[in-house]
Every structure is written in C-alpha cells, then in structure tokens.
Design brief:
The chain is an alpha+beta fold. Helix content is 16%, strand content 43%. The protein is built from three helices and 13 strands; from the N terminus they run αββββββαββββββαβ. Strands 3, 5, 6, 8, 9, 10, 12 and 13 form an eight-stranded mixed beta sheet that branches. The chain has a five-stranded mixed beta sheet with strand order 2-1-4-11-7, with no helix packed on it. The radius of gyration is 19 Å and the shape is globular. The two termini are 36 Å apart. About 9% of the residues have low confidence. The protein binds copper (II) ion.
C-alpha cells in the first residue's frame, strides 16, 4: 500500500512540475514589413504563451499579415490560405494601432459578388464585423500607418508549422518574397 501511495505522490509531483514548465513567459516580437519581405521571416512561439506581434509597415506600399496552411491559388494568383491560423486555433486576436483586422473573402468565398477593390490591394475584403463567420483573418497595414499590435494567447490547436504571407497586388507581394514561417511549439 505504501508503495502505491508513493507512486501516486510521485506521479502528482511529476505532473505539477510539467504544468509549471509549460507556462512560458510572454513574448513580444516585432515584424517589419517592406517591399517585399517580413523581417524576421521565421517566427516561433509556444503553446500557452501570450504573444504580442508588433507589426511595422516601413515600406512604401500597403501590406498585410495572413497566417495559414495550404496556399490558396485563384487561377494563377495566390490569394490566401485554405486553413486560417486564427480559426483553427479558436482565437480572435486583439488588434490595436494603425492597422485593422479584416476578413478575407478569397479562399472560402468562391462565389463572392464583390469586384476587387484597388484601394484594398485587389482583395475581396470586408471589415471585421462578424468574427464567428469562417472567413480568414487579415491584419491590414495601409502605407504610412502607425505600428499595429496583435495580441493573443497560443492554443494547443495552433501547434505545428504555419506560413505567414502578404498577398497584396494580386499576389505579387507573396511571389516576390513576402512570406515567412510561423511555428508553434507544443
Ligand atoms: Cu506586402
């Protein structure tokens, strides 16, 4: 009986230590957006971590940040991802500053009636009014906009390899190198 109790105690201690170890410190990561790159272009975060992305558009053009998996190509134009990081993760990030959070109608809305708008880089986009709708999220930073912060806590569902991309100018930003890796460690 004593042995059983000892084992149970050790198991409880082991789990407690594991739980402590799994609470990573909050992190703030600055991503600079220019023609045509994210700097850095390799982001790594951990489950349970509170992450603040500081997005700076120091380029001359409008830029955006989308995070997802499975490049979605419309004709020959890459315009987003089949799987959206935020929806898979079940997280709505808090966005403040000069940029704005928009929903992207490209990947999931093949039948969109809206003509592409030049002011918005050729995307079919709508303002973020209904977060429950299954449209990919985009953080949009117009040229000359102030720094934008995107804050969220990383969930288990986000674990794995993702890509971040900018699809402005009918995908030209993406194909010109405005793409990076976004990795979530368990
Ligand atoms: Cu861009």
């Amino acid at each position: 009986m004593k042995t059983v109790r000892l084992i149970v105690s050790l198991v409880i201690i082991a789990f407690s230590l594991a739980a402590c170890a799994q609470t990573p410190d909050p992190v703030t990561l600055t991503i600079d957006m220019t023609e045509f790159a994210f700097t850095p272009n390799d982001i790594e975060v951990q489950v349970g971590q509170e992450v603040t992305l500081v997005l700076v558009n120091s380029g001359e053009q409008d830029h955006e940040l989308m995070i997802g998996r499975g490049l979605h190509v419309d004709g020959s134009t890459p315009d987003g991802y089949d799987l959206d990081f935020w929806h898979i993760g079940g997280v709505m990030p808090e966005v403040s500053g000069g940029g704005m959070m928009l929903q992207h109608e490209g990947a999931d809305h093949a039948g969109s009636e809206q003509p592409p708008s030049d002011e918005q880089g050729g995307h079919d986009m709508v303002p973020m009014t209904s977060p429950e709708e299954e449209l990919p999220l985009m953080i949009y930073l117009p040229a000359g906009s102030d720094t934008t912060t995107v804050t969220f806590t990383v969930t288990e569902d986000m674990v794995g390899n993702w890509e971040m991309g900018c699809f402005e100018l009918d995908g030209v930003h993406y194909t010109s190198g405005m793409v990076g890796e976004f990795t979530v460690w368990p």
